[in-house]
TrEMBL record:
Organism field: Chryseobacterium paridis
Highest taxon listed in the record's lineage: Bacteria
Protein name, UniProt field: Transketolase
Cofactor(s) demanded: thiamine diphosphate
Biological function: E1 component of the 2-oxoglutarate dehydrogenase (OGDH) complex which catalyzes the decarboxylation of 2-oxoglutarate, the first step in the conversion of 2-oxoglutarate to succinyl-CoA and CO(2).
Record InterPro entries: DH_E1, THDP-binding, Transketo_C/PFOR_II, Transketolase-like_Pyr-bd, Transketolase_C
UniProt keyword list: Oxidoreductase, Thiamine pyrophosphate
PANTHER family in the record: PYRUVATE DEHYDROGENASE E1 COMPONENT BETA SUBUNIT (PTHR43257), PYRUVATE DEHYDROGENASE E1 COMPONENT SUBUNIT BETA (PTHR43257:SF2)
Transketolase-like pyrimidine-binding domain residues: 476-650
Pfam family, one: Transketolase_C
Length: 810
């Protein structure tokens, strides 16, 4: 087991002195970065700034107990910590402020995130894992307040998992589970539900987690007393304090932000509890100052009175640190020793200013050179067109008047010039078009790459392996197929685990995990509390540490509790790090066609629109679902798999190659061939569409039925357009609300696949009513598309074109 800070601090006075001065210097560098960063924003060289001034000392103390293999999940004010653990340099800090798109110069996000959002790169260029035990790790920050908390739970729980789970390559992710996950959050953000849900779960699970609360007394302009039931979060959390002999609760440590030795002691104790006892710890850092206010968008003088501002000036952490250093003396062998003189500290202050200014200058020059090089490659080609249109000279003159040029200004000039010379086919214009296409591809990569995996393990690359059947293949309940497939998965992939409400002891509410906990243990098949947001968070954090979690959300309706984490965190992990991190979690849920308001909702359109970056897979039966699990466990994309809630007791033939067969993503399946109309659907609705198609056959209408299977990605080979080309009619049938998923499917088919060219009738959507179904079977019948609805509406298409052959029903 790793030693802790308490156990390793036996050093000479000279080493002690050097450490203190190094901390002071780093604190001053960080403060100067904040000061200069604000000026860069206010002078127009950067768009927005939010800085960590005032929090330097606690972050220096936290960094001292942060080891290789540890993880941080934080928010946007931890620049001093990032500097301390070598995850940030002065140059990369300003590169991020300027939105430099170079991964080398701005490795946290390649200019995609605003300043203060830090990350280390967990992946090699090819998308493979680095050795995370050889580096200090920061999971990519997000801005939504408390949104970082659920992920923190998973990062911490992974250490507990690794105490008993080993697999080939697991040494890259853990050393016997001795790593700590560190979380940081602003005091006002503890009013968010995600904070309480995460801390509650951590206290129940007893995971090695240290949460630092930076308490500056305000949430932007709103004082703490208006944020929570108690102004003092430590007092409010007192019920969480663990009791001796109990395996529940957490440790709570309160410490002042300006008291350097007390901070060192607080974090040393916190580390000891977390690393040696696997106990969650809250470090409540009080009396934090914020010298420049919340952000560059406003001034704290607007809401802080003179007394508060005066207090903040006196109790600034760096000022108090300086006082402590100057007042410190110790007698060693009869000689008085001091840490530094006032002159020596002033020299450090000046050196810090020079270092920051030099780093800022390098970052600005690098950023400007990128724009200058782009301009130099394009502008001469635009000037070559001056003779073709008089307006172009004006465009160039306007461009040259710009004091500060950005890439968008260059592209705007090119595109205006091409618009002005439309219809011309000169060599000069063609040369500009060629250059435009060339540089646009570069910027497309800079700003739009890595929404999904671009590695060799991306889901689209997983080959189809068809299910194998034989004379001995049994007809079983659908739940048995998925259960037996999970059995093969857990046997094949020791890094795979599943957790959720009722997932463990009873084998989930539909018995799809029956017997799995008994066979594979409570670590790998686990029950959770009723807390969907942190079930997802467990999955994200574990997946970031090399495990393959399946996070079960009991019903599709309940996934709404997860939407914020899915949208802001999971869906953007690869994008916001430009391929630097990944979290291939599988979200298992079930839904569709059940009865009643609360278990029959279809929030698919919300998932589709809010979670681009996550695959959305909608199998029509449990065999298809099993195949998708087999596919995604070979992939490094995250996915949500929606099992059919009414399919667990329906009979399916069980494949002989469980655990091996795969269903390809982005691949539709024609389940019934026809020549008159193409019916497109997915999930549980497919069975009803097949019933309707049989009825339509009796009415002389030959329907081709297509099961989409995968909404994201959608029909990668444009097979639906080929079907429409044959039938010349299109109907999209869906149990989502009007204009929901059906609108997405129509856009994909008509716009992207250009299938509108083949239509002889208006495209038709058959969707549910805009309310949720009332209870019982009649509620479903009158609320969602029934076979009768489908037959009548599709028949009406043919009545419109040939009323003699297809006389009106009503």
């Amino acid at each position: 087991m790793q030693t802790t800070y308490i156990e390793t601090q036996k050093i000479s006075f000279q080493d002690f002195k050097n450490q203190i001065l190094e901390d002071y210097k780093l604190g001053r560098i960080s403060r100067e970065m904040s000061y200069l960063g604000r000026r860069e924003v206010l002078t127009g060289k950067a768009k927005f700034g939010i800085f960590g001034d005032g929090k330097e000392l606690p972050q220096l103390a936290m960094a001292k107990v942060f080891r290789n293999g540890d993880f941080r999940s934080g928010y946007y004010r931890d620049q001093t910590f990032a500097l301390s653990v070598d995850a940030l340099t002065v140059e990369s800090f300003f590169a991020q402020l300027y939105a430099d798109t170079s991964v080398e110069r701005e490795p946290a996000s390649a200019g995609r995130q605003m300043n203060g959002h830090f990350a280390t790169r967990s992946l090699n260029e090819d998308g493979s894992w680095k050795d995370l035990m050889a580096q200090k790790n920061i999971s990519s920050d997000i801005s939504p307040t408390a949104g970082q908390m659920p992920r923190l739970l998973g990062l911490a729980q992974a250490s507990k998992i690794y105490k008993s789970v080993k697999f080939d390559g697991s040494e890259k992710f853990s050393k016997d589970g001795n790593e700590i996950a560190f979380g940081t959050i602003g005091d006002a953000s503890t009013a968010e539900g995600h904070f309480w849900e995460t801390l509650n779960a951590a206290c129940a699970l007893q995971v090695p987690m240290i949460v630092s609360i930076w308490d500056d007394g305000y949430g932007i302009s709103v004082p703490t007393k208006n944020q929570r039931a108690k102004a003092d979060i430590s007092e409010m959390l007192s019920g969480f304090q663990r009791k001796e002999g109990e395996n529940q609760g957490c440790e709570i440590i309160q410490v002042k932000a300006w008291d350097y030795p007390a901070l060192l002691d607080a974090y040393a104790r916190a580390e000891h509890f977390a690393r040696t006892e696997s106990v969650p710890v809250v470090v409540h850092v009080i009396e934090v100052t914020q010298p420049q206010g919340h952000s560059t968008s406003g001034s704290h003088e607007r809401y802080k009175n003179e007394e508060r501002l005066s207090w903040e000036a006196d109790f600034d952490g760096l000022i108090k640190f300086k006082e402590w250093i100057l007042n410190y003396s110790i007698e060693i062998e009869g000689k008085e020793e001091v840490i530094a003189t006032a002159e020596e500290l002033e020299a450090i202050d000046e050196e810090a200013k020079k270092m920051v200014k030099a780093g800022q200058k390098v970052a600005w020059e690098n950023y400007q050179n990128t724009i200058s090089d782009l301009s130099k490659s394009v502008l001469p080609l635009v000037e070559n067109l001056k003779g073709q249109n008089a307006e172009i000279e004006n465009y160039i003159a306007q461009f040259n008047k710009l004091i500060s040029k950005a890439k968008k200004d260059i592209f705007h000039l090119v595109r205006k010039s091409l618009l002005a010379t439309r219809g011309s086919n000169t060599a000069e214009r063609n040369q500009l078009i060629q250059k435009y296409n060339e540089v646009f591809e570069v910027e497309k990569d800079n700003y739009s790459s890595h929404l999904y995996s671009q590695s060799q393990w991306k889901a689209e690359n997983i080959k189809e392996v068809k299910p194998v059947y034989s004379d001995s293949s049994e007809d079983v309940d659908g739940r048995v197929v998925v259960r037996n497939n999970f059995d093969k998965i857990f046997e094949k992939y020791p890094e795979t685990l599943v957790f959720g409400e009722d997932a463990g002891n009873i084998g989930d509410v539909n018995q799809g995990l029956e017997g799995m906990q008994e066979k594979y243990g409570e670590v790998r098949v686990a029950d959770t509390g009723i807390r969907e947001a942190t079930i997802l968070g467990q999955g994200i954090g574990m997946a970031m540490r090399g495990l393959r979690p399946i996070a079960e959300i009991q019903y599709l309706d309940y996934i709404l509790y997860c939407i914020q984490g899915m949208s802001d965190d999971l869906a953007t992990v690869q994008y916001r790090t430009k391929g630097g991190q990944k979290a291939p979690v599988i979200i298992r849920t079930r839904g569709h066609r059940l009865e009643g308001v609360w278990h029959s909702g279809s929030p698919m359109a919300g998932i589709l629109n809010l979670s681009k970056g996550i695959l959305v897979l909608v199998p029509r039966n449990l065999t298809k679902a099993a195949g998708f699990y087999n596919t995604m466990l070979q992939s490094d994309d995250p996915a949500v798999i929606v099992e059919c809630l009414n399919g667990y007791r329906l009979k399916e033939k069980q494949p002989d190659n469980l655990g091996e067969f795969t269903v390809p993503v982005g691949k539709i399946e024609v389940t019934k061939e026809g020549k008159d109309v193409t019916l497109v659907t997915y999930g549980s609705t497919w069975r009803i569409v097949m019933e309707a198609a049989e009825e339509l056959e009796k009415l002389g209408i030959s329907s081709e039925v297509i099961d989409v299977q995968s909404l994201i990605p959608f029909d990668l080979t444009n097979e639906i357009a080929e079907s429409v080309k044959k039938t010349n009619r299109l109907v999209v049938i869906d149990e989502d609300v009007e204009g929901g998923t059906s609108a997405f499917i129509l856009q994909q088919i008509l716009e992207k696949q250009k299938a509108f060219r083949y239509l002889d009738s208006d495209p038709l959507t058959i969707a549910a009513n805009d309310h949720r179904p009332a209870y019982a079977s009649d509620g479903d019948y009158f609320s969602k598309p029934s076979s009768d609805d489908m037959v009548e509406k599709i028949y009406a298409m043919f009545n419109e074109t040939n009323p003699q052959k297809y006389p009106a029903i009503f």
